[in-house]
From TrEMBL, chains A, B:
Belongs to the HMG-CoA lyase family. One of its GO terms (molecular function) is hydroxymethylglutaryl-CoA lyase activity. The keyword Lyase applies. Residues 3-269 form the Pyruvate carboxyltransferase domain. This is Hydroxymethylglutaryl-CoA lyase. It comes from Dactylosporangium sucinum. Keywords: Lyase, Metal-binding. PANTHER family: HYDROXYMETHYLGLUTARYL-COA LYASE.
């Protein structure tokens, strides 16, 4: 059994960090991730530099990353201008976000959910015209900081609309880290009823449920899981809280469960140390501190 | 659906902390836990004070804890002398440990596994003679820091021997925090084949798998789960590593999964703050930092 890990540290991990990381350090971080076996990496986002200053060097990062056969770099894109930049910068794949609730969509993206789906469709068409696969990430699929509970049917309906608009993959994101494995079950059931597209999951460990959710998602047939080396990446809605699940801890749990990720754990810990040094923080990831327990089933 | 949470913060949580916590603070911590709904609390251990200085005030703690109908206090006991002290101090239940591997058993308890089972049988007989239920905790059930992998058959055989010796409950402990949900599955299968006793689990979150294991254990019919308010409790074999899963984070995940624990989450966070202040540490628990997301299924 195997699952694909999408490394999101360089994008989602860094984007909310106030300490600006140099382009050279980002490239070194990405290079170390590739050396550790990462094969899909969300390398940067093409958003307005004033909105996310940490991503202002998107083109320079893409210019410097190692081009290794089999390694696919993903760029996050929020509009037509971003897509243009991403294509020019040579991304291999595009990720675009729609949010599951009206309030969050308006606050986060300044548009209604229906407008966000139309925006996704435009990005998707442009990416396809240039031969790039597009992922639709559905934010707040597990709960909304403004509206509370999110129905699985609403998420499935959005997934269907994104599939119709050309998505090659549906990513369900627990943006605020509130979900539990039972939520994974009901979302997989609901989304599977409307599309056969590969499912990817994006979990935050904000309330210590992220790894349980990830392992459940694999059991339920997820094709890919997002994680960030070191577990970097906070949540802007809960500033003191932990964000992304950590790649090394996830890969440990998978390996012990008999699920191959293709990653070298020591290599991921080494990559995480680069960004730990740059940010001057203590990483939320635990494996680097605890040490490995070898073997898997 | 419901599960019993055994609060182990006052014993397993504190015992490896170098900062000695005053008896008054321990009693306040336990009182706050009772107020938060805790109904089974491992309050202290009756071991030689030179071996575990933090537990030197076992009698004084037991003397000061609130005696509330329905609240059961557990004392950890390692030998006949400890049992005598525990009974005199008025514990409601007794917990005694055997370890699943020879090397760990000799290093931790200074005796072979067979000798540890005989010791357990003697403690069990003494406790029964005084009308107290005894739990057999099987340490290192998920992996050993010295011998590596631990076979489910070996754990089951130990469980059978402890059941024959009068255990009223079997607790399977992931002492070094290496297990994954698939390990929970194979251990439940193996132990269920030899005894129908209630199963309790003790998980450490050393490598970020503890909560996934706990939720799986509940799905597999566990009667009780250990956790510590605030997530206090390191592992002496990995000094920088996280120990026990946190009561508030566990109770959050359970409630969102539709499993009642009887605990008030805010109350547990309040109790954890007492010990955070006393120890002067940042708690591993996340819920207090992230805030609750209300509701459950």
């Amino acid at each position: 059994m195997s699952v694909e890990i999408v490394e999101v540290g360089p994008r989602d991990g860094l984007q909310n960090e106030r300490t600006l990381v140099s382009t050279a350090a980002k490239i070194a971080y990405i290079g170390a991730l590739v050396a550790a076996g990462a094969r899909r990496i969300e390398a940067t986002s093409f958003v307005h530099p004033q909105r996310v200053p940490q991503m202002a060097d998107a083109e320079a990062v893409m210019d410097g990353v190692p081009r290794v056969p089999g390694v696919s770099y993903i760029g996050l894109v929020v509009n037509a201008r971003g897509l243009e930049r991403a294509l020019a910068a040579g991304v291999d794949e595009v990720n675009a976000v729609v949010v599951a609730t009206e309030t969050f969509s308006r606050r986060n993206q300044g548009m209604s959910v229906a407008e966000a789906v139309r925006s996704f469709a435009a990005i998707s068409a442009g990416a396809h015209a240039n031969g790039r696969r597009v992922t639709a990430t559905i934010g707040a699929s597990f709960g909304c900081p403004f509206e509370g509970e999110v129905g699985a049917d609403a998420v499935a309906e959005l997934a269907r609309q994104c599939a119709d608009a050309g998505a090659g993959e549906i990513a369900l994101a627990d943006t605020i880290g509130v979900g539990v494995p039972a939520d994974v079950d009901r979302l997989v059931d609901a989304v599977r009823a409307v599309t056969g597209l590969p499912l990817r999951f994006h979990f935050h460990n904000t309330r210590n449920t992220g790894y349980a959710n990830a392992l459940r998602a694999v059991e339920r047939g997820a094709a890919a899981l997002d994680s960030s080396a070191g577990g970097i990446g906070g949540c802007p809605f809960a500033p003191a809280a932990t964000g992304n699940i950590a790649t090394e801890d996830l890969a440990y749990g998978l390996r012990r469960s008999g699920v191959a990720s293709g990653l070298d754990l020591d290599g991921v810990v080494t990559a995480a140390a680069i960004v730990e040094r740059e940010l001057g923080i203590t990483l939320p990831a635990l494996l680097g501190r605890a040490g490995d327990f070898p073997g898997g089933r």
